[in-house]
Amino acid sequence: MITMKSKNFILAAACAALLPVAALAQEGKATLGVSSVTPTPSLKAALSKAGKDLSLGRVVEAFDSQLISAINASRKFDIVGRSDLKDVMKEQELGASGNVDAKSAAQQGKLTGAKFLLVTTVDDFEDSTEKMEFKTLNKVGLKRKIRIGAVAKIYDSTTGKLLESANIRTDKKDDRSDSTSLSKDAELTDDLLREAVKETAESVASRVANVVFPVKVLVKRDKQITINRGEGSGVTVGQVWGVFAQGEELIDPDTKESLGKEEVQVGKARITAVNPKTSTAEILEDTGVDKGAVLRLAK
Questions:
Q1: Among 111, 130, 235, 272, which residue's Cβ finds the most Cβ atoms within 10 Å?
Q2: What sign does the CA torsion over 95, 96, 100, 104 have?
Q3: E-assigned strand segments in the chain
Q4: Are 151 and 200 in contact (CB under 8 A)?
Q5: Alpha carbon distances (Å) from 146 to 134, 177, 221
Q6: How many other C-beta atoms lie within 10 A of the C-beta of residue 65?
């Protein structure tokens, strides 16, 4: 049985171990505490009943690894004290639901030295195969369908405020008449599942980066702009982004809470090239596009 005295010792030890790590955060980068990816209790119970515990476990494990890789690839964050954060989160019973109250979020930030906290849960998962008959070809194939759903919650650890709650959905399909390359009973070792997990992780990492560090114009030359996003950030050639000029900070008159800055759309741009650290875009519309303007992906 763990006594209160023992719990306090564990928390103090975790704090002492993490502070030197936080001090190493590179200047200009934000420190981010990333909790381990977990399935929601309802999803876990449903898949356990269906005998798919192993499948879910493998997906969550792969997602957890890919998420760290994707966040590192963004070059925007220093991930601090992750192994210790996992123990602290468990100790404080900060749930698999992904819900963290303001007090708990602020406490995790203090313990880990992280400015921001990311809590990610998997709330939907399907991996199924169906047989297909190609009568004209006299062949039988398999139709593979994978669906992954996740909820990513981003907290400001200094205040405990929830900054963003994002629902991420990824669907992948693969129809083949040659079933030899598709594993029996939708086993989890093929390329399709790895692509689905990686895409979901990159979407979460991209959302976190966009919340903390909005996509911005670095340079404008004639009809071309360079933005502060490169490979692995979710930016792809052909995407059209809205360009916005930021104005005054908006304050809620009742709560006095900052609601962000006023934004006025001043143009649109299409991505033409994605480089390791930056991307370039062709300006499609321009009524005031300039250095420092914020970009948001057009819906």
A1: 111
A2: positive
A3: 30-34, 38-39, 77-79, 116-134, 139-156, 161-176, 215-221, 224-227, 240-251, 258-274, 279-286, 294-297
A4: no
A5: 22, 18, 43
A6: 14
- What phi and psi values does residue 35 have, to the nearest 5 degrees? -75, 160
C-alpha 157/C-alpha 102 separation (Å) is 8
Distance (Å, rounded) from C-alpha 62 to C-alpha 245?
39
The pTM is what?
0.71
The radius of gyration of the chain from alpha carbons, rounded to an integer in Å, stands at 22
**Which pLDDT belongs to residue 169?**
96
Axis-axis angle for helices 41-49, 53-73 (nearest 10): 140
The ranges assigned to domains in the chain are 4-212, 215-297
The CATH superfamily label for domain 215-297 reads FlgT, C-terminal domain (2.40.10.410)
Q: What is the mean pLDDT of each run of 10 residues along the chain (299 residues)?
A: 42 38 53 90 92 90 93 86 54 48 57 80 89 67 86 86 91 67 48 90 92 94 94 90 88 76 91 95 96 90
CA nearest neighbour of 277 among 115, 104, 73: 73
If phi > 0 it is left, if psi is from -120 to 50 it is alpha, else beta; for residue 138 that is: left
What span, in angstroms and rounded, lies between the C-alpha atoms of 78 and 25? 6
Q: What is the CATH number of domain 4-212?
A: 3.30.160.150
pLDDT of residue 281: 97
- Number of Cβ atoms within 10 Å of the Cβ of 185: 8
